[in-house]
Amino acid sequence: MEGEEPTIDCLSNPSFSIDSEKNKLTAGKGVAVACGDGRGVAGDVLQRFQNSLTVKVELITAAYIYFRPKPSALDRKPGTPLESRLLGSGHELKHPCALFSSGLGNVELPRKLKKSERKPWVTSINQLKRRARLEKQERKVVQEVTLKPPENGLLVKGLVPVAHEVFAARAVLLSCVSRIATNVPIHVCSLCGEVHVGHPPHKIKTCNVVGSPTNKEHSWERGAVEHVMPLVESFHLYDRLGRAVSHNERLQVDRIPAILELCIQAGVDIPEYPTRRREFPIYRVAGKIFDFERRFPKDDSSCAEINSYGFWERTQKSSEDGKSFKLPYDDDNNIQGHAVRGLAAWEKMRSGALKLMEKYAVQTCGYCSEVQVGPKGHRVRQCQEYKHQMRDGQHAWQEATVDDLVPPVYVWHVRDLRDGGVLIDRLKRYYGKVPAVVELFAQAGARVGENYVGLMREDVALPELDEEKLVV
């Protein structure tokens, strides 16, 4: 490759678009532009291309790459409008230049919101206003409105098996993460709370909070499972269609994991957390709900176990909260097997929760991380985020996403564990990020699926420190 100009297959690469009239080539997302002397990272990148259309890079700007064809490209057979209408710009580069794209494209993480910004709406605000106007018109007409499950209080029979799968996947996931966390170290910053999976922790200077050092380096300490899988709780509702939890009842109603509450409302029966199962649907007439079923059916527990607030108080907690779930085929020495099962359980839990949330409503605050499983949010005044004084401490409820229910903690991805190198700040734009659970299982030997390939950025070549200054 020495002594030759770099080449690129522009016609067969979907990440490039050519505008022959303006004489420029636009590079899309996932394109890395590397300059060098034909050796090192630039030479490795150049070996990936085939000789289809040979061009000579002339001028690189922030958005476009101007070029002109080399003489060898003019000898190709005519047929493409590019070969006959390209013009040169007259600018020469000091170093050869190579362009590389994986074809898959890198996936950008969601932008971190400011404290004054609200979470994006799942349903557009105009559609919500249109829906509210239609409901207001329906309330003026005195007629029965037919409700479908689960709005009428009945279960969606097709989603009951999905709820049991999510419940079982959560138990397997907790067991696998607890087991692997004893072998793969988890680090957390004591100042900003950033998490790093693996040893040694990275040297990327992103600690920018009150009290952090001027060089923005992290103060690492040993983390635990709750830093990889943060617990999101929700109030447990005996009747999901009943009244919302008030501020005075905040200490008398049990708070359980939100994913567990979603499974209970979708059909999973847990003796420690009973819920009301209706046998007959409710009716809605002129905006009012009519429930002709008895308040406590015969198959429920006796009324002696119900206090004045209508909620159960039991001292015994479920086994999945107090102890780790023990699998019958557990082998403490098979760490890779735990990682494979845990990664499959993670995918099954998130995909199943997404299916349940299509029917069963989940609410979240637009400014904080509070979540309430049910058709409406609670009335507890505990929000301390942006302009909470104007809401009297109440939450700004909106439709939740699966990331609100099961939040993924994104950490820097370590490519090669055998190398033992530390992630440094100068090369942070070449590193990828994945959820901490996925990174934990990946370092334990599990093979990560294609869903996280764009986030991991393993197809981006890492330059050496002496080559990094030559990268555009």
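Second entry:
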Amino acid sequence: MSHKRIPKRKAAIAAGSAVALGAAALLLPHANASQDGAAGNAAPRTLKAQDASALAARLASTLGDSLAGTYYDSAKRQLVVNVTGDDTNAAAAAERAGALVRHVDNSTAELKAAARTLRTKATMAGTAWAIDPRTDKILVTADSTVTGARWDRLQSTVRSLGSGMATLKKSSGTFRTFASGGDAIFAQADGGTVRCSLGFNVTADDGSPAFLTAGHCGVAAKQWSDTQNGQPIATVDQAQFPGNGDFSLVKYDDPATQAPSEVNVGNGQTVQITQAAEATVGEQVFRMGSTTGLHDGQVTGLDATVNFQSETDPNGVDTVTGLIQTNVCAEPGDSGGSLFTQDGSAIGLTSGGSGDCTAGGETFFQPVTTALQATGATLGDSGAGDGNAAGNGNGNGAGNGNGNGNGNGAGNGNGAGNGNGNGAGNGNGAGDQAGGDQSGGDASATPGDGTGAGAQDGSGAQDGSGTQDGSGLTATN
């Protein structure tokens, strides 16, 4: 089952059936806080990914089209801001804020105009494009089905954009949405059982408990269950697909359902989701899905357009705009699953892509911020702060200061919670695979051995798997 059942059906985010595939990559915290330079200091600031995303959003809001994109340089831990021409005012403002200014040729307006040309002349199944601020170009991708005259047409359109405006590459896979039949959240449709993944629990604008998932899941079926062939527990309230997004708001049928704002990442551990945030190219992100479990990668493009082959019309195209492009893998059944950051920011909902978690590929995500704005929903739940809810502070909650909850929260600091909070792993190895609540055994059998979320006193690594920030998470690329 994709979300935990506890008294009053307290739903947790979908756990994957295969959390530890391939080489394990630890979800490591940035131990040092951001180093803020003094106002007016032109030296770029050293930033955590979360702070870089927040700074990028502020600069975009204040400088608007004067910026030609931003991205996070994870190696140098700096926010890079693209500025066109001789716009000294924008450059100075970005430098004062602590960003590294980079002068580029293509403006945001020019890149968006190129994207519109692609949509007019090259909309065909198996193609996608996104703005890549690292190259200051449109990245155009064609899957393995784009051949012959269709490939020639795409090449011609890209060339027509002019030198230095776009790059074209081939993907070995086939673009498709990732709904499937099998595990997590289930629905019955004309073609049989549909399986997707629960994304993030939210509160609807009328105060009722709900969750976000992919729009193509919500379009496929109205009622969803937590077990295959089980009784429905939630009903689609809103769904968008195709068009300007791929998201659904699904309300729990029982208004007493407690839906905690957390992602169940397997191994008996969760990540507390504290906010929704915009994606930043270059930042590390983590995806949880019911088929492939926990995987990580980087954001590679924004404002992506994807042209899926229509599942209802053999000659049709389902175009979705405004997506996030990443190199995180996904497979059928992962649709709707959560894309989030190490520090608990909700970023996206799995839409579709190409490839798989063996060969890799591209995966696209619906931005959570857009889905929340469109549906009127908010992150968080009425049960936050009760029992095991992670707090923001010292003591038993996760984070710094006084926690919002009195339970055993997972978060930054030593073990789970900075202080005397109990570790979110209790020294045990990975369990809870395939969405279950299995006992994990000792740490020697787990990826990430020796760096686990603290044991009894929350003091950090002892026997468990994971990281000393208390999250205890391992991811596979």
